[in-house]
From TrEMBL:
Gene: hutG
Transmembrane segments: none
Taxonomy, superkingdom: Bacteria
Free-text cofactor note: Binds 2 manganese ions per subunit.
Organism lineage string: Bacteria, Bacillati, Bacillota, Bacilli, Bacillales
Family membership noted in the UniProt record: Belongs to the arginase family.
NCBIfam families, per database record: hutG
Key words of the record: Histidine metabolism, Hydrolase, Manganese, Metal-binding
Annotated organism of origin: Fervidibacillus halotolerans
Residues binding Mn(2+), per UniProt: H105, D131, H133, D135, C216, D218
Protein name in UniProt: Formimidoylglutamase
């Protein structure tokens, strides 16, 4: 059963041995609009919930809460990202694992703000991003393509690891930017060498006090995920993504997870949103067992 709460009603911290997961939507595609992508991702949180509600829940020691959505009003992206960060901080302070439903991938910056506010200045953070793109662009305004550059420029105790990079989906300048910031990455065709990939993920996690995970749905093959802001016919197979999520879900220092760039406006009969809901359900099961 999913329990629904407003943030003001949310129960105080309790330690009863159950895994606690808080679902939080971020209704925003302003960052996608600024990045000249296909808008519509702001409709994703409730569309994903619609399919998620139909999935049987295994009998696991789990408390699952739904905190509703934070909406980006008009072009006020920065304010919405800070509100998202405050809410994620609130959940972490109550020993609840935040599971954030974006929204455009600008969701990840608000996600980071919440994690850093919770941890304070001292701990190191590793960001694991399953994505076709680096999202290390320069820009006059923050967008869905700039947020990891923002984070790396603002925070010297953050490192960045991307899984699924498309060789022809990023400019040479972006590869050079990734080198400049000492980013780790695996190309799309390298990811399914799982022994090597899992070892690299584990090593990356071990080098940091905490990690958080973000999944950009345009990393997935567009025949399975047509409803995204930037579809790719050479993306990762859903079963590959599921294997990655199962492994990462069990990392003891994983704090939180967001899923972004599902776009119901461009979807085909809910195919992408349904896939997102199944990956979320599988992640929750592996996190709680």
């Amino acid at each position: 059963m999913v329990q629904c709460f407003s943030l003001e009603q949310f129960p105080p911290q309790e330690r009863d041995g159950k895994t606690k997961i808080g679902i939080l939507g971020f209704e925003s595609d302003e960052g996608v609009r600024r990045n000249q992508g296909r808008v519509g991702a702001k409709q994703a949180p409730d569309e994903i919930r619609k399919f998620f509600a139909q999935i049987p829940v295994p009998n696991t020691p789990l408390s699952l809460f739904d905190l509703g959505n934070i909406a980006c009003e008009k072009d006020r992206l920065e304010a919405a990202q800070h509100e998202l960060g405050k809410t994620i901080q609130h959940l972490l302070q109550r020993d609840v694992f935040p599971l954030i439903l974006g929204g455009g991938h600008e969701t990840a910056y608000g996600h980071y703000l919440g994690v850093r506010s919770f941890l304070g200045d001292a701990p190191t953070i590793g960001i694991i991003n399953i994505d076709a793109h680096f999202d290390l662009r320069e820009g006059k305004k923050p967008s869905s393509g700039t947020m990891f550059r923002q984070i790396l420029e603002e925070d010297g105790k953050v490192d960045y690891f991307v899984l699924g990079i498309q060789r022809f989906g990023n400019t040479e300048k972006l590869f050079q930017t990734a080198e400049k910031y000492n980013c780790k990455y695996l190309l799309e065709e390298e990811v399914d060498h799982f022994d090597v990939t899992f070892e690299k993920i584990q090593q990356f996690a071990n080098r940091h006090d905490y990690v958080f995970l973000t999944l950009c749905f345009d990393a997935i093959d567009s025949s399975y995920a047509p409803g995204v802001s930037a579809p790719s016919p050479f993306g990762l197979h859903p079963k590959t993504v599921r294997k990655l999520l199962r492994m990462i879900a069990r990392l003891p220092n994983l704090l939180s997870f967001d899923i972004s760039e599902v776009n119901p406006v461009t979807d085909e009969s809910g195919k992408t949103a349904k896939l997102a809901s199944l990956l979320i359900a599988d992640f929750i099961h592996n996190r709680s067992t």
